[in-house]
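Exam revision sheet. Question 4 asks you to relate a sequence to its structure. Input first:
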Amino acid sequence: MRKTMKTISGQPLSNRRLISLAVASACAAFVPAHAQDAVATDPAVGTQVVVTGIRASLQSTMNMKRNADGIVDGIVADDIGKFPDTNLAESLQRISGVSIDRSNGEGQKVTVRGLGPDFNLVLLNGRQMPTTDLSDLSGRSFDFSNLASEAISQLQVYKTGRADSPTGGIGATINVMTARPLDNPGLRASVGIKAVKDTSNDHLPGMLKGDSVTPEASGIYSNTSADGRFGIAVSASHQRRDSGFNRAGLANGYQGPYLGSDTTAGSTLPQPGQPGSQNITNRPGPNDLYSIPQNFGYSVNAIERERTNGQLVLQFRPVKELTTTLDLTYSEQKIHTKRNELSVWFGQTPTSTSTWPGGHVQAPLTYQETYQTPQDISVVGGDYATKTKNQSVGFNAVWKATSDLRVEFDAHHSTAESGADSPFGTENNLSNASFSRGNTKIDFTKELPVLSMPAADLVNQPIQAAGSWFHNSWQKATINQAQAKGNLKLFEASDLNFGVSYTDSTNRSTYSNVQNNTWGGATKPSDYPGSIFQANPLGSYFKQLGGHDAPELFGSLYTFDFATLRALTAKATGNAAGYLPNFASSDTDRELKEKSSSGYVSFGTDWDTAIPFHSALGVRFERTKVTSVAQVLPGTAVVWGSQNELPITFAGSSYSTQDASYTNVLPSLNLDFDLRSDMKLRASAGTTIGRPRYDQLQGGLSLGTIVNYFTGGTASVGNPALKPVKSKNLDLSWEWYYSQQSLMSLAAFHKTMDNYAGQTLVSQNLYNLHTPVGGAYYKAAIGSGCTVADTNCIRNYILNTYDGQPGVVKTGVKSDGNLNGTITGLPTDPLANFLTTTYANQKSATVKGAEINVQHMFANTGFGVQANYTYVSSPTKYDNANTNDQFAILGLSNSANLVGIYEDAKWSVRIAYNWRDKFLASTVDGGGRAAPVYTDSYGQTDVSIGYNYNQNLSFQLEAINLTNATQRQFGRTEAATLNVTQNGPRYMVGARYKF
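Answer key, structure tokens:
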């Protein structure tokens, strides 16, 4: 250890770290206005130069990166204020190694260095935050769409492990920081307004369209007392956005895959020489795998989002050595979605006509089925309304006890809650149908898959009610956390960091479902006025996709008002309760508690060697107890009530409780070498953990509500004894800070992960449930001449022949001539088969990659560029030719950013292009089968233009998705389209006034 400290630019190494971090924090403390001025020294003339705006924020970001222990990236102040970003996720995507998942054209969740959202920990001012997401009740991923970017001063992305970092982030730990008034004394205030024009709203049917232009407003007030002892900061924002997206795809994925030699009746293509084989072009070979579409539909979706954010910060500094802070943070997001869909189901009839591309794994280029009796054209309407609230109350005290000792205490109580914002529940659909579909063909050779039904006749076979489902989901997460930490300076160039924390986390979710399975028709067309269903030109909603103008495309998409039709259907069926959700009780009620106690210590020192370097060696100890409480809802019967689906009858409920615990010791070592005054080399080694998802931990067996005629039922059960994923990480980084706002960096990383929870599908019988498929009545129907694929024939035979016998009840005749009624599984019938998902610590994986990052400002021209590229890979890949359940890392993809910058005293311009390569999004498709879902590569261009009218008033113009990029997902081959989505550009014009 060195006796005297080496200095660079007149400051000791340890002191210059603190000074630079202080500058970065000061620059980050006030977001809505421009970044605070940064002061630099011009080496050519030896005078101070004041740097403002974008250049100041870039310099602040560089200081944060340069002076941290480990590899850290981030964005401060003006970076966020000036990026054309709707929320923090879109700001984060500019950082190398960070990719985002989009929902409705807006960033929602982040992936860092190939590790998905569940393995990235999000903190607010260093505190672990709860999160809820009704679209993923079991995930841990933080939904950034709840937070606007206006109220945030700084984003810090810690890519390497540190002893003082809370556990949970293998990809990264992301710290979201808000403003503190005493860090930036004096009066500072601003207000801003924006008008938002989302063009995706223009591509919706008239009855779904929202307002053409919607408002946004934000403001901040920060002030301190004259003596610097008191401070207050208040910030708030309110945003409304009316938008939409249009999607075409296979919601339930593909049936199969099957081997070309498979002879299973009713499930495969006819073999060569069999009837129907002449209708197959380029048939898959005996050893080839092929899949067949199960269903296909077009949907239009209108979304009204309202987001409110607010924060109050009170600070008191009774003496200069003690600073106390009380902060309250609130966010609320309401999302109302109206959707209409036109879709069809394929019955896998032997009278199909198809063409195939060739290859070992195939999906059809075109696929057509011919039916002996008219089939249904499904006309679905949905109404979803949810509200998510996040609230946090925190207290922080920092005490500089002596010149060498600094201690800090922090505590907070934070909640996140999501639930229904509508009397209809959170997710509700009315299914209607016209029973007039004959030959049905789908052509996958175009960008927009083209569905044709030339014989459809909705005039003579009008639309009638066919079924419905009303879902109500609720989720609440609570975190109570207390942390104490300290920093003790030792010797001349060393310090000791230490701390303890306790975290009590609870995540509870409930779910209820009210469903009518009268798929054969519950009403008569005369029950509805002729104007209730409105025909709209289908192709006009997909103009960005090739194939939208194909002459064979089915011409109409039907829309209706959900509330009106719900009331009419309830009246016509005499079943009002069946067309509303059940708020009084739940089918599923799950709660998971995690209580963690931890302590850490780390020792950092500067070394005066030939190449000066700094080391930080630490270890974190953590113990966690897991308690799972789950409602168990047993199934009592399987009832065949419609053509292809057999709903399960449930009765009674009980609760099961399971406990488990685990302990982890997590070492870390971070080194940074000062190769030159402007160049660093960093090396890091450490162990981090990522906790399993809630559904992986949650005990209690859960059955799916329906047994599918072809594939059987589904079920899931978690494992509370799962251990966290443990990752051993190696990182290396070279950084060259060759001017005040310019840098180049190269980084490489390698992660070895153990204890990955592998998802296993177990085929089993549950609750002694029997299915009528394969029973005595069923066999008699087959013996009478019905084929396995002709479910209408089988049902008609059983209902006619055995009405009144045990399990068989005929209730009438549908408009298409087929019989209505129920067929219940008997004790003598076969046991129903369920594919049950469960989990175990059985997988290991490695991820490695590299990043290159360049930030360059061209002298004093005002022009600059930011560019980065991230490469990630893993030998653990999904094998598309393997039909078994597989483990693979989700979200693994290369990514890149290119940002052009110009700024002078009046103007600031940024053009940002973000690209993400294709990645595996899921290993389970929409039908619950083990099958890959890939998200195709996607690139988006955003623009921001700012104009400073004077030092107080500025204007801004922003464009999101300027080139109107579309999104696509596919299956086992890139030609196996699962869905394509069209959004649209979004434009914003705004003004901000600083006081």
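Marking note for examiners. Residues 94 and 185 are 30 Å apart (CA to CA).
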